[in-house]
Amino acid sequence: MSTEIPVPDIGDFDSVEIIEILVKIGDIIKKNDPIVTLESDKSSVEVPSPLDGKISSLKVKIGDKVSKGSVLAYIENDISKKEKPKEEEKIKKNEVNKKTESILPLTEQIIEQAESSIIQKPKKETPKVYARPNGPDIDPAETQEWLDSLEAILKNDGTDRAHYILKKLIDEAYREGSHQALTRITPYINTIPVETEVKSPGDQNIERRIRSLIRWNAAAMVVKANKKNPELGGHIGTFASAATLYDVGMNHFWRAKNNKFGGDLVYFQGHSAPGIYARAFLEGRLSASQLENFRQEVGVDGLSSYPHPWLMPKFWQFPTVSMGLGPVLSIYQARFTKYLINRGLLKDEGRKIWAFLGDGETDEPESLGAITLASREKLDNLIFVINCNLQRLDGPVRGNGKIIQELEGIFRGAGWNVIKVIWGSYWDQLLAKDKTGLLIKRMNECVDGEYQAFKANNGSYVREKFFGKYPELKDLVSSMTDRDIWKLNRGGHDPHKVYAAYDEAVKTKGKPTVILAKTIKGYGMGKSGESINITHQQKKLDEEDLLYYRDRFDIPLTDKQVRNIEFYKPGEKSEEIKYLKERRMKLGGNLPERTSYAKPIKKPAKDIFENMLKSSGDREMSTTMALVRMLTSLLRDKNISPKLVPIIPDEARTFGMEGFFRKIGIYAHEGQKYEPEDSDQLSSYREDKKGQVLEEGITETGAMSSFIAAGTSYTNHDIEMIPVYTFYSMFGFQRVMDLIWAAGDSQTRGFLIGATSGRTTLAGEGLQHQDGHSQILASTVPNCVSYDPTFAYELAIIFQDGLRRMHDNQENIFYYLTTMNENYQHPVMPKDCEKGILKGMYLFKEFNNKGKTKVQLLGSGTILRVMISAAEILSKEYNIDSDVWSVTSFNELRKDGMTVERKNLLNPTEKQEKSYVEDCLSKRGGPIIAASDYMRTFADQIRPYVSKAFYSFGTDGYGRSDSRKNLRKFFEVDKEHIVTYTLSALAKEQLISSKYAEQAIKKYNIDKNKPIPIVL
Ligand SMILES: Cc1ncc(C[n+]2csc(CCOP(=O)(O)OP(=O)(O)O)c2C)c(N)n1
Ligand SMILES: [Mg+2]
Fold first, then answer.
1. Ligand that comes closest to the CA of residue 242
2. Is the pTM of this model over 0.85?
């Protein structure tokens, strides 16, 4: 039986053109296979088949206009078994999967419920029975009594009183030792009760010795470098505070990548790098000479100041030192890992993403800005460790408050599992003796400024100032010496407490975990830097300080060796080295280590781009639309399609990308729990657990972090992916430049698309939206390759070459392409221009009229079209010939110019080479007039590399709202200004009389007295 395939509801559009027919008569197709592609003036979208079957007739051809209900084709769906699509088998299998999928959430829910009901293990000596908060009530009568009491209080004394009683009950529960978080902020004690702490299986003595050696070598590295050259700088105090936090992870938790396992990913706090190097030195991965050359990277095999994958590509994985970037990148890394798993591209091996951050670092909006995404997406593969040493660079983080409590409230409020590691084991006994809760009260009331001061002083100071406030507390420590009091340690320095916290974190299901570890900045540095305000910048230790440090950590060095600041590494057969290596071997290998075993993505079939190289005929479209068309075609390529990661921060409709929603789905880890209101429409909002689009919401920071996660997936997950992040060009580089810089450092591969770009193409949006400088900002990132194409074929050639370079050649570059929202016709690709497109310019058209006066017109992006119009006027009205050049990239031309110039200067006796731009222009007549929709600086970049007179025009100044025509007039990049300025330039070059320019000024009503737009 034949059934018609009509155009479904396509939203607000009527009479939409068919631009592609994707089936032939006789084709056997599956439900949802595309039949045709429709294109409105804003977007293109494929129409899927509503059922399986065989196409029996086609009712449309390319160029036809259709509306909702128009019949596209007929399909026979009672085809014989033999003819059924091969995929049928797979579909059947999928059906089974689908069922499992629908069961899974229920199972997960049950597990989740059961797990969340597991509460504090009862103290051994007094076993108690607890009602399961989410389970059945074990004593309904008792519950009813409590409820009746509450009701009576509410009735007789009102809500305030009821509130007071409830608060009292909770306080009492805490005082009695309940560790269930009943409030957003819990008392200032460890979250994990002593009784339930999981004990470390490690040999604590050896681990302490190893840690001490790492501490020493880390400090020595910084002191040595600064002795050599005080300019070099560095940090001792940060790692000193974090050593235990790293050591426990390295010895017991962080599994390396190897041929059996994908590896945990650890974002180290940037300026703790010396400690990470010091461990790698003991492991034999770095040499003493490399340590000697800490912070010396020019001409020697030195070590980067901070984690820089670009500079140490086999070692560092994540650039973290620009504060705030590590945390946000790690969140999106964790999400991207789940994305790959849910899409079936990556095995779920329970890998974890750990991020270390400073407490001061949490001031950065990037640090906390995405934490709700982590809980919303149930990222139980993510663990934050915040080193709360209470200090940042200048002084206390929250001198008048408590950073740990503040962060606890924020993270718990955001739905994270919060583990506070405040007090070390030496406090356990005191807390056990504190029957009245007075010690906890004192702990709660002290502020961080005081806690810092305690550790900057000594035991007797702590006795007086902390315990001394209450006689009962003074009594509590009366039998302890000052030395004993001084030994009362902080949780983050206690390997037992840290181990227990990490153990719980890795076992937590359904939510991310944050560990808030209290430490001491400059731990062990004594009077030279322990817990004092200048600790952060302490990079020199005098002899006395070094001797103290040696003694404090029992480093087996003589006084002379200490004076020489020697590194210490025990022999290969020593207990320490054997232990350390064995631990890492058990955990799968080295960490950090950057490798890639990804298979290159096969290049797409050539015909995928064929349509883009043809003329669009009468059809007008923007380059943003051309991009969407190209991506839609690429989604039909079986090699490329699964690897494409379209990333959009809530602007899919602006860019005409809403067709992707239905076609490839929006990634949503929970699938779609609702029927979207537009479900009957062709571009309905379809969320899917296997969805491909990363719809980020309004966060350029988040979208950029996803871009980096996807673009570095070739190293972090051994899978090459192709992120295409499309954004409003104004909210790209300008907004998230630091992340783009980090993308470069990370060796990210992918395409950044600055859509609706240029100062005058986004007419109505005004000053805050109109971008005239993103291309200039792009030029500052060394491994960013940027283009400002005008025509669809240019875009296709560039994109295709990008895939070749990043995936065939494995070059660690990324692209920035600007696309516009101005609709115009696209010509057929001129012959032999591919190389020029990629190099940055090619001859688009020659206007040969009388052969008398000539000018070289260079245009980029949308302004190339202005140059073409100006060339026509110059030819027709003034008999002036011109060569019109399409400049696809002033940035690439500049790179070539710089390189050639440098080579020539270094080889003065050799034959001097020509820059590419000079090669193009030197034999051609007349001055050069160059213009773009960006600031003049953009075109000015090639000025030094040409030998002709050069005039550049652009859109310097703030944007504003108006029509494109008026904006181009205002910025003086319309055809009238270009003609006038060209005539004037030719007069200046003595090639024509100046009267022509004067006449043009009058003819076009150009106001000579209008100020230059940079002041308006
Ligand atoms: C974006 C950014 N701003 C400023 C700095 C300079 N800086 C480096 S470390 C630091 C203080 C860090 O304090 P905290 O986060 O508490 O780390 P700690 O050293 O105490 O562990 C500052 C301001 C930076 N690295 N990045
Ligand atoms: Mg700090």
1. 1
2. yes
